[in-house]
């Protein structure tokens, strides 16, 4: 899973990136060199996998991971033009599964304004404008092509043009694409465009000390209209403090968190919220060789889940043995889980549940 940070320059993106990834201050200085996207892979903390791995004394520990990307920020002087995102940012965020917009809600002596609500609206507008430009471009091309082509190809283009007109209407009234419903065919058309407002958006309100983040979030929500589904997920944190936390040794971290009254570090909160916002769950494959967590979307069937492990497992899928992680932990072995009827045999259509331990039977 890829999560990309966006936001105006000097909103604290790199600081938040360091907080999320535990990257150190030197790396941060390097990233502030502004000529390159910063990238780090983070393990998704999962107690369940840890316990199962200990139980089976697995040689290899393979948690799920998240790829965080920190591209060059949006230029303030170009805000509202639809071109402020820049090529580096556009290329970086095109493939991301979710976008995290960092909003500056702290004051320092840099002379940069602290106007979080306005910045929030401006970032939203940049994303809308970027998609709108793409849609208008596409519509123009479709129209000129449709004049020259007839038959089946033309019919296909007409379907696409209808979808694009719908997107145009929504974007012109500031509605993000993720607030619209599409059928399977329309979804297929949309996929290749990688529209920014079709991605899940998480807003990080990066507060200074003594700033009421929750109040700011209410104000930001008040600027949004209409469809509940279009609302982004909000998260408030203090970038500087969280960056310090991320760089502490685990023993020191506990003390620091207590001192600041932080119950859950921002990095962990972000992962939890991202999983929920994207509708993701985990299943596990466990044995003496390897304890492995796999990330899938909610509602996926056993045969599709097998495909995330290896395409052979999907192709040659026969059945899956499923044991809920907590019952396996209690029973200690698959043999005992079977005896207790906690290990179930399921077919292709079985819908995976969070925390399933899976063994796929297959033949290719
Ligand atoms: N007081 C305070 N300062 C912060 C906070 N987060 C970031 N800063 C400061 O704001 C400045 C800019 O932070 P960066 O993290 O480099 O911001 P950026 O968005 O990555 O900036 P560019 O990459 O240059 O666009 C730095 O001096 C940070 O120390 C915060 O939560 N509180
Ligand atoms: Mg930066």
Overview of the molecule:
The chain is an alpha/beta fold and 364 residues long. It folds into three domains: 2-46 and 64-110 and 200-278, P-loop containing nucleotide triphosphate hydrolases (Rossmann fold, 3-Layer(aba) Sandwich), CATH 3.40.50.300; 128-191, DNA polymerase, domain 1, CATH 1.10.150.300; 299-362, Beta-grasp domain (Ubiquitin-like (UB roll), Roll). The chain contains 15 helices and twelve strands. The strands form three sheets. It has a six-stranded mixed sheet with strand order 2-4-1-5-6-7, with helices on both faces. Strands 3-9-8 form a three-stranded mixed sheet, sandwiched between helices. Strand 8 (280-286) and strand 9 form a beta hairpin. The longest helix is centred in the middle third of the chain and has 33 residues, at 116-148. The chain is flat, with a radius of gyration of 23 Å. 34% of the residues are buried. It binds guanosine-5'-triphosphate (GTP) and magnesium ion. Guanosine-5'-triphosphate (GTP) binds next to helix 1 and helix 9.
Question: What topology does this entry show?
Answer:
Elements: E1 2-6, H1 13-21, H2 25-31, E2 38-43, H3 47-56, E3 60-62, E4 65-70, H4 86-94, E5 98-105, H5 116-148, H6 151-172, H7 184-191, E6 200-207, H8 213-223, E7 233-237, H9 239-246, H10 250-260, H11 266-278, E8 280-286, E9 290-297, H12 302-309, H13 311-315, E10 317-324, H14 325-331, H15 334-339, E11 344-346, E12 356-362
Parallel strand pairs: 1-4, 1-5, 3-9, 5-6, 6-7
Antiparallel strand pairs: 2-4, 8-9, 10-11, 10-12
Helix pairs in contact: 1-9, 3-14, 5-6, 5-8
The structure holds guanosine-5'-triphosphate and magnesium ion (MG).
């Amino acid at each position: 899973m890829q999560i990309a940070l966006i936001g105006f320059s000097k909103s604290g993106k790199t600081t938040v990136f360091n907080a999320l990834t535990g990257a150190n201050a030197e790396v941060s200085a390097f990233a502030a060199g502004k000529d390159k996207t910063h990238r780090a892979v983070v393990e998704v903390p999962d107690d369940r996998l840890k316990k199962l791995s200990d139980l089976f004394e697995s040689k290899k520990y393979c948690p799920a991971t998240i790829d965080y990307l920190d591209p060059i920020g949006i230029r303030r002087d170009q805000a509202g033009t639809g071109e402020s995102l820049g090529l580096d940012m556009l290329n970086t965020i095109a493939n991301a599964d979710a976008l995290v917009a960092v909003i500056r809600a702290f004051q320092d002596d840099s002379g940069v304004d602290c106007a979080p609500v306005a910045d929030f609206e401006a970032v939203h507008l940049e994303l809308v404008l970027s998609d709108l430009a793409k849609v208008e471009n596409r519509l123009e091309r479709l129209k000129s092509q449709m004049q020259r082509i007839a038959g089946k190809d033309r019919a296909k283009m007409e379907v696409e043009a209808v979808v694009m007109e719908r997107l145009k209407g929504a974007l012109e009234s500031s509605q993000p694409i993720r607030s619209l419903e599409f059928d399977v065919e329309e979804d297929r058309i949309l996929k290749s465009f990688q529209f920014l407002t079709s991605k899940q958006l998480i807003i990080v309100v990066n507060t200074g000390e003594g700033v009421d983040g929750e109040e700011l979030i209410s104000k930001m929500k008040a600027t949004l209209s209409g469809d509940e589904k279009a609302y982004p997920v909000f998260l408030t944190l203090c970038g500087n403090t969280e960056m310090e936390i991320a760089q502490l040794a685990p023993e020191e971290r506990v003390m620091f968190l207590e001192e600041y009254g932080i119950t859950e570090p921002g990095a962990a909160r972000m992962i939890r919220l991202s999983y929920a916002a994207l509708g993701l769950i985990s299943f596990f494959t466990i044995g003496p060789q390897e304890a492995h967590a796999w990330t899938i979307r909610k509602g996926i069937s056993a045969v599709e889940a097998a495909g995330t492990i290896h395409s052979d497992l999907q192709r040659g899928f026969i059945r899956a043995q499923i044991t809920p992680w907590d019952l396996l932990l209690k029973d200690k072995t698959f043999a005992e889980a079977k005896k207790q009827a906690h290990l179930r045999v399921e077919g292709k259509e079985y819908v995976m549940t969070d925390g399933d331990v899976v063994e796929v039977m297959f033949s290719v």
